[in-house]
Specification:
By secondary structure, the chain is α+β, with helices and mostly antiparallel strands. The protein is built from nine helices and 21 strands. Strands 11, 12, 14, 15, 16, 18, 20 and 21 form an eight-stranded antiparallel beta sheet that branches. Strands 1-2-3-4-5 form a five-stranded antiparallel beta sheet. The structure holds zinc ion (ZN).
């Protein structure tokens, strides 16, 4: 069909062919680059979006040959520095020399999903790297003539102690809002007491709380709330108190590693943490309680309901109630997609009607307390989306809402004196509703390089 008349047309078709060839090569290269470097690492949709963003930025980086370009990288769930270097097509040799710098390995090795890294790149070469180590510390690495140099820029935070208190009329958030506290602080309070109080079921109008917390600012700019130092929650007349304490010595207990090196304790040094979560998902409403003689809504006959149903939208994350090992994961009759976890001391928990499982979770695998194992659905015999949750002790079903949950370890005898001394002014402040002079004295602004509030 191609008509080649004379030399001019011949040249044109040759050019056309070349152009086509180039386009194909470019498309292939792009597909390879994206597929290989990016998409295979992306596990979730939102990370996908981030990946796309990084890839677009990296593309721009490749085009800007001379100008140094700042690339903001939001760390994904499975990203390591090495993975990110590969994604940005940066030299692995540079990474090795970065890691060889004293102290740098420690401050770069563990990345957190969602955190931001700033890469300065020129002509596929790393020229700078910035990472926020803490709200007051920024690590800056720059390429000098004789290699990389690093420094930590310190911009200290000012901490002011505050007391907040509120009475609940309809929700914890409403009460916190009226007291001028953020939703995030309300969530943290709920989190501290989550082993004793089911914030889904147990909260009643008239419940109240009082909290001692830090308010942070930097160069006069408010940065929101810092640590919760102590909190009291009165739930249906029962008083619960929690004191934040850096336990240090309990290190070595893997189940505590998530909490860093501090925990919340009762005034007499018992851990508020239990070996199990009361509810394996957050802030939903319970549609069916434990009941041995319930009429089954689908089968329409009396059938013991040996668990709790938590009504929740499809896709709500479901967490492992405690540390353990996956005993079963798959489909099982009326349960639909179900996970069973075997815990220590012959406790077993069951999570039914799931829409899907956490990616990669397999039978025999270890899970930690609070780890997301699946998502709410309505597979199996279910009339609507909900989580069916069971708690079994030595093979016998217990009411998950009422069963006595085993506590975590208390403060060690050797540190109990320290703890009591630490707790005393906090408890006085909680009682009086104002920061006690003793507590103020302890967190007075440091005169030189002292650390406040410890
Ligand atoms: Zn159920």
């Amino acid at each position: 069909m191609t008509l080649e008349i004379g030399s001019k047309n011949g040249v044109m078709s040759l050019l056309k062919a070349r152009w086509l060839q180039c386009t194909v090569v470019a498309v292939l290269a792009l597909t390879w680059w994206r597929g290989e470097g990016w998409l295979s690492d992306l596990r979730r949709l939102d990370e996908g979006a981030i990946g796309e963003r990084i890839s677009a930025e990296a593309e721009a980086a490749k085009q800007a040959v001379l100008l140094p370009l700042t690339i903001d990288v939001i760390v994904g769930a499975n990203d390591t520095l090495e993975v990110i270097f590969r994604k940005l097509e940066l030299s692995v040799t540079d990474l090795a020399s970065l890691r060889a710098l004293p102290d740098l390995r420690r401050s770069l090795d563990r990345l957190y999903p969602g955190e931001l890294l700033k890469f300065g790149v020129r002509d596929s070469e790393l020229v700078s790297l910035e990472r926020q180590l803490s709200p007051s510390e920024t690590l800056q690495v720059t390429r000098e003539a004789d290699g990389f140099e690093s420094e930590v820029i310190v911009n200290p935070l000012e901490r002011t102690l505050r007391v907040g208190e509120a009475t609940i009329r309809n929700s914890l958030f409403q009460a916190a809002g009226e007291a001028g506290l953020s939703d995030s602080l309300a969530l943290r309070i709920a989190d501290i007491f989550r082993w004793d109080i089911d914030f889904v079921l147990d909260i009643q109008p008239g419940d109240r709380f009082r909290v001692i917390y830090e308010e942070l600012s930097q160069d006069g700019t408010p940065l929101g709330e810092g640590d919760v130092l102590a909190v009291e929650f009165v739930n249906q007349g029962t008083v619960y108190r929690a004191i934040r304490f850096e336990h240090g010595e309990i290190a070595g207990d893997a189940s505590l590693q998530d909490d860093g090196d501090f925990g919340y304790y009762t005034p007499d040094g018992k851990s508020l943490r239990k070996a199990f979560l009361r509810a394996p998902l957050e802030f939903t409403r319970v549609s069916s309680r434990f009941n041995m003689f319930r009429r089954h809504p689908v089968l329409n006959r009396i059938r013991a309901h040996r668990g709790v149903d938590y009504a929740a939208p499809i896709g709500t994350p479901v967490k492992a109630a405690g540390e353990g090992r996956v005993r079963f994961i798959g489909n099982k009759g009326g349960y639909g997609k179900v996970i069973e976890i075997q815990h220590a001391n012959e406790v077993r928990t069951v999570y039914g009607h799931l829409s899907r499982f956490a990616r990669g979770l397999r039978q025999g695998e270890r899970v930690r307390q609070g780890e997301i194992i699946g998502f709410v659905g309505m597979t199996g015999l279910a009339t609507g989306p909900h989580l069916h949750y069971e708690y079994l002790l030595r093979g016998i079903h217990k009411d998950p809402q009422k069963v006595a949950l085993p506590n975590d370890r208390p403060i060690s005898a050797s540190r109990l004196g320290d703890f009591k001394a630490h707790a005393a002014p906090l408890l006085t402040s909680l009682e009086n509703g104002q920061i006690s002079p003793a507590l103020l004295a302890r967190v007075a602004p440091p005169t030189s390089t002292g650390t406040a509030g410890r």
